[in-house]
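Today's session is about reading a structure prediction critically. Students often jump straight to the picture, but the first step is always the sequence itself: look for stretches that repeat, for charged clusters, for runs of hydrophobic residues. Only then move on to the predicted structure, which in these notes is written as discrete structure tokens rather than atom positions. Here is the chain we will use throughout the hour.
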Amino acid sequence: MRARSVEEPGQRLPMLIRYGHRSWLVPLAVLALVVGVDAATPVSFASVSWLAMVPVVAAGLCGPTVTVLFSLTAIAAYPALDSIWGKSQGTEDFLLVIAGAVLSVPISIFRARAASYVRHLQGAAETTRQVVLRPVPPGWGGVDSAARYLAADVEARVGGDFYDVLATPFGARVILGDVQGKGLPAVATAAALVSCFREAAFHEGDLATVASWLEERLHRQNLLAEQLGEREERFATAVVVWFPADAPGEVEVVNFGHDSPHVLGPAGVRRLPPGNGAPIGLAQLAGGLPEVRRLRLGEGETVLIVSDGVTEARDRAGAFFPLDAHLERLAGLPGAVDPGRLVDEVAAEVVRHTGGRLTDDTALLAVRTPPVEAPGTGQAGGTGHSR
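Below is the predicted structure for this chain, in token form.
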């Protein structure tokens, strides 16, 4: 499984981030514009004082070194242009250019320090993301899988959505879930549930026992949060799917109040039975844990699990993303059941539907049993990867 950045595909970064390495072109263009206007206008129109804008623009877009260069250029250009066209209105204009150049340098330094601090925070958030949403090797657990995570806040890079693919002695087990709420408490809860799943799903053969471990872990997490002053108890919707090693063509599913997964295959698109169980953390209120269901999975079928960031994504008019209709269109395309292509297509369509304005974290996970190796080919029909 290969990891990809949160922003791909198509998620819009701020223009200053995307084109930051070319930001010096903007003050250069302003400088050229001032020179051009000064050359093209009559003597009565004194535009040379506009050179004060050049270092100011550089301070807002460029680093301190580039700002100093443009400041010196503006100061040197004023007497040069004045000697050519003689449009100076006196020393006041020259002092204005010098003042703009002098003030621009500390402004640029302060802005560069703030940008460095933001990059430091981004690095810390990326480290957190790698802990909660770790990359998974190709074919991990004997299944093909692919996952995508799109953060609503592109700078934060991590939220309350979580997923994992686990190789166990009993076969591959996967989880995708969504913690109620946002911010650091939601991240901490997601991390607690993922770490619990990694241990319980590996050691416990019964999926119902794994479900009980998740419920207990969130209960203890809420107790700890309460002692630390957190007033709101957290819960999480989630789907756990087990691909038993001793029962090819079957899966076991526990659904904690999450949207039921979609299944894409040669016969089209269908939904697994809806999850009527309580979210993780609310079992006591619902009278018990969700039931474990064993279901048939046809050859060549891929299970797609998504968070509500997909199903509740809205366009400018407020219309929800039509996931079912989009999957129906995908099902008729060659290779649409490949997990990597499937999550790429759906994630890209969500970004297009919202115009890049994601209001909620978005997670997608697609998993399938690898296609049976064709005789004489020496290779299977597909490979898995995660992002």
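Discussion point for the tutorial: The chain has eleven helices and ten strands.
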